Amino acid sequence: MATSHLHLFLFFLFTALSTVCQENNDDALPQLPPSEQEAVYRVLNSVNPAIPWRTIFPDNLCASPSDGVVCDYPDASSSTSLHVTELHLGYVSDYTQNPPCSSNATLDPLLFTSFEHLRKLFFYKCFTGAPASLPATIPEEFGSVLEELVFIENPSLSGDVGVLIGYFTKLRRLVLTGNGFHGSIPNRISGLVSLQEITLSRNSLTGGFPSNATSRLKNLKVLDFSHNSLTGDAPDSIGDLTELLKLDLSYNAFSGKYMST
Q1: Measured between alpha carbons, how far is 15 from 76 in angstroms, rounded to an integer?
Q2: Whole-angstrom Cα distance, residue 171 to residue 95?
Q3: What is the pLDDT of residues 48-96, one digit of tens each?
Q4: What is the model's pTM?
Q5: SS3 of 191, please?
Q6: How far apart (Å, rounded) are the C-alpha atoms in residues 35 and 9?
Q7: Which residue positions does the secretion signal occupy (predicted)?
Q8: Among the listed residues 112, 114, 100, 96, the one whose alpha carbon sits nearest the alpha carbon of residue 50
Q9: Which domains does the chain have, with CATH numbers?
Q10: Helix, strand, or coil (residue 36)
Q11: 115/72 Cα distance (integer angstroms)
């Protein structure tokens, strides 16, 4: 009997110690700042309100994040604070389990004000039903470390394309294809000197080619403005893009000499 009592005592002692250790380990895990976690919930809910995001992911989102939400340390010198560095939204395939968007998906403005460490933003077939729109303005601070901005096949998402193209000095990929964007291509696109790809095809863009738009984009490999309503001359500076592998300006109203490949 004494042996049984000893075994029972040791069992409860082991359980209690395990619980304390687990709680301490959970406390030691780097946490996503509460305001940033709230913004993730809001963004996820805006693209699919039918999914109970807060119930499925009630605690530290970075410890066990939703598909499509990537957390990381913002730089090599940081080891205590995690932040959201990638958001991939919209179903791609059974092998890419991003959160699927609903037919009444909207774009929460918090997306452009709450993720200062965001490196990649990806929307694929997310806005295909009810009308959605870009905010009227986006803070210049958005995208200070952004490397990839990708909106593909979102026909019901409208807005001035100039609003979405900010001062992204680290941006490598700008892919806005098959959306409902309108307006003209802003001159500040020439300042995105890290760009390797610009694809703005199949929107409703108008106006001319920005002056000196490509003169500083020495790393550009893909330039695709096809299937819009752009007019005017294509600049001679395109010929100076020695790294260019694909150029497509087809299905516009350009004058002057250019080629489509």
Answers
A1: 37
A2: 26
A3: 999 999 999 988 888 888 889 999 987 656 556 899 999 999 977 766 6
A4: 0.84
A5: helix
A6: 43
A7: 1-21
A8: 100
A9: 2-255 (3.80.10.10)
A10: helix
A11: 12
